[in-house]
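[[Local backbone shapes]]
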Amino acid sequence: MQKLNLSHITSLKLGITAGGQLAKMIVLAASNWDIKTYVMDADPACPAADQCTKFIQGSHANFDDVYNFGQQVDIITYEIESINVEALKKLKAEGKIILPNPDVLETIQDKGLQKQFFSQHNIPTAAFKLYNNKQAILQAIEANEISFPFVQKIRKGGYDGRGVAVVNRASEIHKLMDAPSVIEHKVAIRKEISVIAARNIQGEVSCFPAVEMEFNAKANLVEKLICPADISAEIASQCSQLANKLITAWDMVGLLAVELFLDHDNKVWVNEVAPRPHNSGHHTIESIVTSQFEQLLRAILDLPLGSVRQKMPAIMLNLLGEPGYEGEAIYEGLFEAMKIDGVKVHLYGKKITSPFRKMGHLTILAGTRVEAIEKVNQVKNLIKIIT
């Protein structure tokens, strides 16, 4: 792999595919070191477009767009999984630095290959089987190969709760999607946990403190996270060890967000992973010595990884578009929310809101976990995103 000359870091051209809120926050972190950031996205009004050094319009799913974008930069990273991996592999073969490795991305893009990787490396994960289509799943149910309750995940393209169906009983089989899928046993979840691991080129690994996630039942996406998680030191250590084991097994450079389940017997299961900054790490901007976005840069530029010491307890609250509203976004309640000590507001710059669209997030800081929860209860109904 070509080595970067970091003595000229201020002239480094960092390419980011695509241009959503994660890219925006990578760009903001890179600006602290005066790194030149190039962003490619199909939408010229994407969150990162106004923040980066150079914006290039193009589709992350299109081979030519991705390949041509790669020719303009020194190193490529990404903020979404659904990239044309063949273009990335060709760029890598020609000597372009792409981190995380496109071979890792290719595996993670397919939830079936993800699950097989977990099994091959003795990672605890819910029992699963792979099926090519809805008809095959129905036949397996009829033959008692699949028992209720179970979870269907389409193998490719699912994101933010899309492409997932929870089927608790026979009367719910209408939820099934007709696509190549993973069918897995539904774990009796007590808590959902996330750990973000970072690994640099030298193989140094560091894990952020475990966070506890709460999901919006309607949208099936993270609504709130709490750090530190309300789990024992032993469970927290298990979660970090699994994240470390996974990022090392993949020989991966960058960030790996590992979503885990804690069941009612206090057993930890790996749910799925993402090879990029993650919604569950947004609080790190204010509450951890090194944010996940700076840590990504440190990892892919082969710098020493930064401290992951927590400065104070924090809760991250996603700002979602209100149900029933679609159009130009209006933010109600910002003034009232910002009067509360420790409330930090991040707006992503998305002009158009729609039901449950991620429009921004709040980080709520406090001296204790209990105080942070009390503040969230004050602020969570203040801000509404309408039209």
The CA atoms of residues 139 and 145 lie 9 Å apart. The mean pLDDT is 94. The chain has three domains: 6-98, 127-185, 189-386.
